[in-house]
């Protein structure tokens, strides 16, 4: 099936910049799918969005919407809606005037505008606020108007750039629910930019993780936490993220800093990075695991506690039920079940697929 949106080898280098803001980006978004572009500030998310909408022109590659090359089509003619974090709502106009704006400037017939505005207001639960002045609305209602203004033009794709970051937390939760409802009710295709992994995990079908202009992984939101494809994804996602141990495997021993761990695996000797999922590690007696050390901190977090354990100079994190948390200063072991460890190539930082590895069982 033709994807709704396809980016093919898309790059962007701003004039005078030493490095590309986006490099060789390949990405497809299916009809009705919500894809989150996730990554730290400066990784190229907004640049990507601006190229999709047509505000920036790629330095290389092509962009297709419904199979049609739109790379050289101007922004206004791509039928892509963009909503920013700072609303872009005319505060002195009424909600109705705001919603009608995009169609009025396109000289759509009055009756048609009234119908479209009524429909979107209904969808957003704002039918009774149409005559209110937008400037009198609260943050989340204002953001609803901003999204509504875009929806009346029936965009093929809706792009949202950190749309919830100006809202306080209760409004943000309400807006998240609202967006999920809209996705379901009208089957919108959405590309959603955020640096907030919780937002990405709760709203998106798939998550595309970017680092320094490059795509590191695209994966279903339900799977990405347990299947990072790159050390960057492992270090960026998860709360807390995986503990990454960079070292060398040699003759059945993995050495990382001052820490030596017995390993049984089918991996060849050489440079290796191991990722330990904090939720997978299980505290045990110090003699029962080669991964052992002194508890440095215990951070209570409601239904769980996060331990930081000094294992031979490496700080390893483990998540435990608060009742089971040892005290700081105590020496404990951390059992590593097979599902809690992920192996990454020490040179490329890519996950080593299909490798079997058992870690830390004393000889
Ligand atoms: P993000 O949205 O992930 O924070 P951006 O796409 O805004 O990242 O920025 C990616 C990189 O491109 C950054 O290094 C940023 O400084 C640079 N950049 C963004 N916009 C411009 C611009 N208009 N001119 C020059 N450099 C830019």
Layout of strands and helices, then pairs:
Layout: E1 5-12, E2 22-29, E3 34-38, H1 45-53, E4 60-65, E5 68-69, E6 80-83, H2 95-104, H3 110-123, H4 139-151, E7 157-161, H5 169-186, E8 190-194, H6 197-203, E9 206-211, E10 214-220, H7 231-236, E11 243-250, E12 253-256, E13 259-265, E14 270-276, E15 282-284, E16 292-301, E17 304-311, E18 314-320, E19 331-335, E20 341-345, E21 357-359
Parallel strand pairs: 3-8, 3-9, 6-7, 7-8
Antiparallel strand pairs: 1-2, 1-4, 4-5, 9-10, 11-12, 11-14, 12-13, 13-21, 14-20, 15-19, 16-17, 16-19, 17-18
Helix pairs in contact: 2-3, 2-4, 4-5
The structure holds adenosine-5'-diphosphate.
H/E series: EEEHEEEHHHEHEHEEHEEEEEEEEEEE
Which fold does the CATH topology of the largest domain refer to? Answer: Rossmann fold
CATH superfamily of the largest domain: P-loop containing nucleotide triphosphate hydrolases
The overall pLDDT, averaged over residues, is 91
Largest sheet: 6 strands, mixed
User: Largest beta sheet: what is the strand line-up?
Assistant: 6-7-8-3-9-10
Describe the oligomeric state of these chains in a short phrase: single chain
Helix content: 10-25%
Silhouette:
elongated
> Which CATH architecture of the largest domain is right?
3-Layer(aba) Sandwich
Bound molecules: adenosine-5'-diphosphate
Specify the number of helices.
Answer: 7
End-to-end CA span: 53 Å
Unreliably modeled segments: none
Radius of gyration: 25 Å
Number of domains: 2
CATH class of the largest domain: Alpha Beta
Find the structural class using helix and strand composition: alpha+beta
Compute the number of strand runs: 21
β-sheet strand percentage: 25-35%
